[in-house]
Amino acid sequence: GNEIDAAYLGQILKSFEGTHDFRCFAGALEQNERKTGKPMGTIRTVHRVELVQEERQPAGHYRIDIHLEGALYKMVRNMVGTSLDVCRGRLTETEFEQLLNPTENMSRKSNKSKPAPPEGLSLEHVFYPNDDDF
After folding, report:
1. What is the mean pLDDT of residues 103-125?
2. CA 26 to CA 47: how far, in whole Å?
3. At 35, is the secondary structure helix, strand, or coil?
């Protein structure tokens, strides 16, 4: 069925924490590079990823809180979609680890997972270096 093991999903999502090359999770990299004439850096730092059970919702409703620096286009949707595919057995943990630690010749095309749908995605806060919360 479509049941997702929340504890396992939380564990997979935690894998994104730290500094990684997100080239396999970024959309439209090649198009942006053609447009600007410059290669775009794909190294990003994810400070925290948490799977949070929503209190005022029926059981089984969760949100994913992600605190990161400089998201790439569709990066968050691809992170979530790929994590769900691991939980559903469509992608092995080894394949997932390869996407998170890509070789030079890998790209978004190396990741067969679809991005999570945009509905429900929201940018809650932007921190700037001089913010107290930064």
Report:
1. 91
2. 18
3. helix
Q: At what angle do helices 6-14 and 75-87 cross, to 10 degrees?
A: 130
Q: What is the pTM of this model?
A: 0.88
- Diameter of the chain measured on Cα atoms: 49
- Summarize pLDDT for 59-94 with one digit per residue, the tens: 778 999 999 988 998 999 999 999 999 999 999 999
* Residue 91 CA neighbour count, 13 Å, CB half: 24
Q: Is 29 helix (H, G, I), strand (E, B) or coil?
A: helix
8 A C-beta contact, residue 75 and residue 22:
yes
Residues in the chain: 134
Q: What is the DSSP string of 43-104?
A: EEEEEEEEEEE-TTS-TT-EEEEEEEESPPTTHHHHHHHHHHHHHTTSS-HHHHHHHHS--T
Section 14-41 average pLDDT: 87
What pLDDT, on a 0 to 100 scale, did the predictor assign at position 61?
86
